[in-house]
């Protein structure tokens, strides 16, 4: 019975995976996701779909916005491994933790989130690739570090459908460096082993903080969704305002990946969802000089009371 359920789940997952892609000219592209996956629609004023275009002047500057606390991102565990796989939509890197104390986590706004995987979105040239944009500008690669809320949920699948269940940390990459980025050199050369859909390989664990910018806590934060079907609106997004440089040679490895394996090998490229409507959401930031300043209620009270008080003197 368990075997039948497992086979059924695999068939369902395969069926759902084949019902969407990134081809804007086909019937399964992002514009049509909402027909098969209703949560992917962004038409309702209350919708919280991702990605979005972050308009810096419209963000709300909040000097007291909590910064993410990275736990075990700076540790390489000799007994833990990473599985790299090509699922036809992207390359996914999944940690296999040897023990609970080796798990990479982010603490944010009083909750603890465990890293379950990270994956990539990229474009065919330097003008596209990232899912989020900053003032309408794309970056060539966007990395998503996907975490689930371990305080309130038992596992990722339980958390992914619930508000506050997930946290995704986004890091932009650009291919301007003259030499290889040391952190991404741990992963990118392995892409030749996962060139086709269904390929997997295993590498030793390494320090994940080498994949982030040197200023990982200058962020934009907003409530949103997964950027692939089923587009569950369960994600607290943290978008790093700083970019990481990789080399042109490292970027070329992304462009050699294929989305299938057969007689006609299709390039796995431009695998990003277009930006969605912001609707009624607010994007907060702690990047100085950005947007409108969020003022505390106490400060607002002083701004109101002091002019009145001075009027009596």
UniProtKB/TrEMBL annotation:
<dbReference type="InterPro" id="IPR018338">
    <property type="entry name" value="Carbonic_anhydrase_a-class_CS"/>
</dbReference>
<feature type="domain" description="Alpha-carbonic anhydrase">
    <location>
        <begin position="18"/>
        <end position="287"/>
    </location>
</feature>
<comment type="similarity">
    <text>Belongs to the alpha-carbonic anhydrase family.</text>
</comment>
<dbReference type="InterPro" id="IPR023561">
    <property type="entry name" value="Carbonic_anhydrase_a-class"/>
</dbReference>
<dbReference type="InterPro" id="IPR001148">
    <property type="entry name" value="CA_dom"/>
</dbReference>
<dbReference type="InterPro" id="IPR036398">
    <property type="entry name" value="CA_dom_sf"/>
</dbReference>
<keyword id="KW-0479">Metal-binding</keyword>
<keyword id="KW-0456">Lyase</keyword>
<keyword id="KW-0325">Glycoprotein</keyword>
<keyword id="KW-0732">Signal</keyword>
<comment type="function">
    <text>Reversible hydration of carbon dioxide.</text>
</comment>
<feature type="signal peptide">
    <location>
        <begin position="1"/>
        <end position="17"/>
    </location>
</feature>
<dbReference type="GO" id="GO:0004089">
    <property type="term" value="F:carbonate dehydratase activity"/>
</dbReference>
<protein>
    <recommendedName>
        <fullName>Carbonic anhydrase</fullName>
        <ecNumber>4.2.1.1</ecNumber>
    </recommendedName>
</protein>
<dbReference type="GO" id="GO:0008270">
    <property type="term" value="F:zinc ion binding"/>
</dbReference>
<keyword id="KW-0862">Zinc</keyword>
<dbReference type="Pfam" id="PF00194">
    <property type="entry name" value="Carb_anhydrase"/>
</dbReference>
């Amino acid at each position: 019975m368990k075997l039948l359920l497992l086979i059924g789940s695999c068939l369902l997952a395969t069926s759902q995976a084949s019902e969407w892609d990134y081809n804007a000219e086909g019937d399964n592209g992002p514009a049509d996701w909402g027909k098969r996956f209703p949560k992917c629609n962004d038409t309702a004023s209350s919708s919280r779909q991702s990605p979005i275009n972050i308009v810096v002047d419209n963000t709300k500057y909040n000097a007291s916005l909590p910064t993410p606390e990275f736990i075990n991102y700076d540790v390489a565990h000799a007994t833990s491994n990473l599985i790299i796989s090509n699922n036809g939509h992207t390359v996914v890197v999944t940690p296999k933790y040897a023990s609970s104390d080796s798990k990479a986590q982010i603490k944010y706004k009083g909750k603890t989130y465990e890293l379950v995987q990270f994956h990539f979105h990229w474009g065919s040239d330097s003008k596209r690739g990232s899912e989020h944009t900053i003032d309408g500008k794309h970056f060539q690669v966007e990395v998503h570090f996907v975490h689930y809320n371990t305080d309130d949920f038992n596992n990722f699948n339980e958390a992914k459908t619930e508000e506050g269940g997930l946290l995704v940390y986004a890091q932009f990459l650009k291919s301007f460096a003259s030499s290889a980025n040391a952190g991404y050199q741990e992963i990118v050369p392995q892409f030749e082993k996962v060139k086709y859909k269904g390929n997997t390989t295993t590498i030793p664990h390494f320090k994940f903080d080498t994949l982030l910018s040197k200023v990982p806590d200058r962020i934009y934060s907003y409530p949103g969704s997964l950027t692939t079907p089923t587009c569950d609106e369960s994600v607290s997004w943290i978008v790093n305002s700083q970019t990481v440089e990789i080399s042109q040679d490292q970027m070329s490895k992304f462009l050699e990946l294929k989305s299938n394996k057969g007689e006609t090998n299709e390039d796995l490229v431009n695998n990003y969802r277009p930006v969605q409507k912001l609707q009624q959401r607010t994007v907060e930031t702690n990047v100085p000089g950005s947007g409108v300043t969020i003022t505390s209620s106490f400060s607002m009270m002083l701004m109101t009371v002091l002019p009145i008080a001075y009027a009596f003197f």
